[in-house]
Amino acid sequence: MKICVLMKQVASEDSPLSINNNSIDQSSLNLVTNEPDSYALEEALLIKEKTNGEVVICTLGPESSQQVIKDGLAKGADRAIHIICDELETMSPLDLAKIITKKTENENFDLILSGLQSNDFGYSQLGILISELLNYSHASLVMGTEINDNILKVKKELENGWFQWSELNLPCSLSIQSGINQPRYATLKGIMSVKNKPVDKVDFKDLGVSQNPGYRIDEISVPEKSKETQIIE
Q1: Helix (H, G, I), strand (E, B) or coil at 184
Q2: What is the pLDDT of residues 60-115, one digit of tens each?
Q3: Strand, helix or coil at 139?
């Protein structure tokens, strides 16, 4: 079982936000691994232990995203792909999906796991778009997985406390819901092994993917606090 886990570096929830030249000042941010992606990595590691597979981390982001890769490798991933990009803020979810697909399409992954959404942009679209571009089956809001032969059973979260079990053919892409498992901590042995695990680094511009976000950002501003009461007669 060959598994790819999409992981992203984001600002922590308590990071101060300051605007500089109509963009967020990156120097003031405390950067961490996107929390929903940690659940996707843990699920991939659990599947690997059951199937004797391989887990590959794929990160699209600036050089600082190396920390996300190191954390994932320390927890048990086997290798990593780092697509270097400093222009995430100007890209649409489709642009991001095309870039990741271009780099990973020849890897022939059986499974691609991603967190349900990122804590910064919150598009909740990347896993679905990648499945369409690769012609993979897809399930979202996944709260459980079972693999028998070439059939994958997934437990999907519905509304009002209801769940649904579905069967998917491999290969497939899954968007993992937070809370599906308990992410592990890196061990000392895992941390020491990071330096021996390969990281494939490539600049996204070298992939030759055309971009067309379909929109432009005119202004970025911090929300203003206000209080207004309307009385409806």
Answers
A1: coil
A2: 999 999 999 999 999 999 999 999 998 888 889 999 999 999 999 999 999 999 99
A3: strand
**How far, in Å, CA of 26 to CA of 62, rounded?**
11
- Checking if the pLDDT of 20 tops 80, the result is no
Tokens describing residue 136: 């993979």
Closest CA to 74 of 201, 202, 199: 199
Distance from C-alpha of 103 to C-alpha of 58, rounded to nearest angstrom = 9
Is 9:65 a contact under the CB 8 Å cutoff? yes
Let me know: does 198 contact 191? Beta carbons within 8 Å: no
- The H or E element that residue 140 is part of is strand 137-148
pLDDT band of 33, cuts 50, 70, 90: very high
pLDDT of residue 74: 96
Q: Which amino acid is at 211?
A: Q
Residue 171: cis peptide before it, omega within 30 degrees of 0: yes
Is a pLDDT exceeding 90 seen at residue 43? yes
Burial 195-230 (b: 16+ CB within 10 A, else e): eebeeeeeebeeeebeeeeeeeeeeeeeeeeeeeee
- Pairing between strand 151-157 and 137-148? antiparallel
Instruction: Mention every residue, 6+ apart, whose C-beta is less than 8 A from residue 100.
Output: 6, 58, 60, 83, 126, 130
3-class secondary-structure state, position 137 = strand
**Phi, psi at residue 24, to the nearest 5°?**
-75, 130
What is the model's pTM? 0.89
